[in-house]
Amino acid sequence: MSTPNLSIVIPVYNEEATLATLFARLYPALDALGESYEVVFVNDGSRDRSAAILREQFEARPDVTRVILFGANAGQHMAIMAGFEHCRGEIIVTLDADLQNPPEEIGKLVAKMREGHDYVGSIRRKRQDSLFRTWASKAMNRLREKITRIKITDQGNMLRAYSRSVVNAINSCKEVATFIPALAYTFARSPAEVVVEHEERAAGESKYSLYSLIRLNFDLMTGFSLVPLQWFSMLGIFVSLGSAALFVLLIARRLIVGPEAEGLFTLFALMFFLIGLALFGIGLLGEYIGRIYQQVRHRPRYLVEAILERDTEQSS
After folding, report:
1. Residue 286 is inside which H or E element, if any?
2. For labelling, which of 114, 130, 199, 298 has a CA lying 20 to 30 Å from the CA of 172?
3. For residues 153 and 35, what is the distance between their CA atoms, to the nearest angstrom?
4. Max alpha carbon distance in the chain (Å)?
5. How far is Cα 112 from Cα 48, in angstroms, rounded to an integer?
6. 80 phi, psi to nearest 5 deg
7. Glycosyltransferase 2-like domain location, by residue (predicted)?
8. Band of the pLDDT at 316, cuts 50, 70, 90?
9. Nearest to 91 by CA among 178, 180, 165
């Protein structure tokens, strides 16, 4: 098999309801580009019939279809990492299987890459998500940009294009927890963004719960910046200075006015605030230590059960 110009990497997790529609739209959209391509599906330990459907699609289009089957769920970003390590294209595009990003929009990213960019992100024109999720995403985007200095307008959108050099740099990293768009941004010399359409989910439910989204943002901020620790250190300094000033004030008041019996609940409130602050700091420190703990164990990031692809020697 010759090296294709374009690789499409699609992580799949419990998407049996959308795969048939995805196939019907994806392949014609890629054929229309006039580029040699391959589609790399990564089944991330799905518990439904997704793996069987992907096997059937490989048998139907073995010339341009490859399937990586995980033995267990490893998460969306690890599935994309596996796709990056096995894809062969010069331009690599990531796409979710839920059809919220139309496959027909891939051409916009490819055209932008042809202008000389090595990383192209996408911005959803009109998000088809709930108001709370849209607002929360925008708020986290602003906070993340201040902390990490990584400028990604729409961090939740996985429709993105990467050059081979950027993907090779990503593959050289051995992190067990990362955020691929942000990691790519740190390696890109000429990043760009394009506006794309966004549709409602074709079927099923989002695989990201509120807890998963919070965890993802913790990984993003602690994985690319020490600013949270630095901010907390500064806050600790200010609280210590404030506590010292309050202590001096109370001693002076006691000497001048005398002891007071009131203010007990104010003291409790101040104490609970400081205890909460300390617990938050311990939790933040634990995030960084937890990342170190995961890294030093050297466990495999994902387990590949099988790879379905055409024999390159027979096809050449």
Report:
1. helix 264-296
2. 114
3. 28
4. 95
5. 36
6. -65, -40
7. 7-168
8. very low
9. 165
Residue 235: how many other CB atoms lie within 10 Å: 13
Q: Is the pLDDT at 128 greater than 60, yes or no? A: no
C-alpha closest to that of 84 among 149, 38, 151: 38
H helix and E strand count, the chain: 11, 8
Nearest to 220 by CA among 150, 127, 316: 150
- For 210, the enclosing helix (H) or strand (E) is helix 210-224
How crowded is residue 111: how many other Cβ atoms within 10 Å of its Cβ? 13
40-80 pLDDT, tens digit per residue, is: 999 999 999 999 999 999 999 999 999 999 999 998 999 99
- Distance between CA 30 and CA 12 in Å, rounded? 19
Q: What is the pLDDT of residues 221-277, one digit of tens each?
A: 666 677 777 777 777 777 777 777 777 777 777 777 766 555 665 676 677 777 777
H or E stretch at 181:
helix 180-187
DSSP string, 113-172: HTTT-SEEEEEESS--S-HHHHHHHHHHHHHHHHHH----S-TT---EEEEHHHHHHHHT
pLDDT, one tens digit per residue, over 8-26 is: 999 999 999 999 999 999 9
DSSP 98: T
pLDDT 10s digits, 264-310:
656 766 777 777 778 778 877 877 887 787 778 778 889 999 999 98
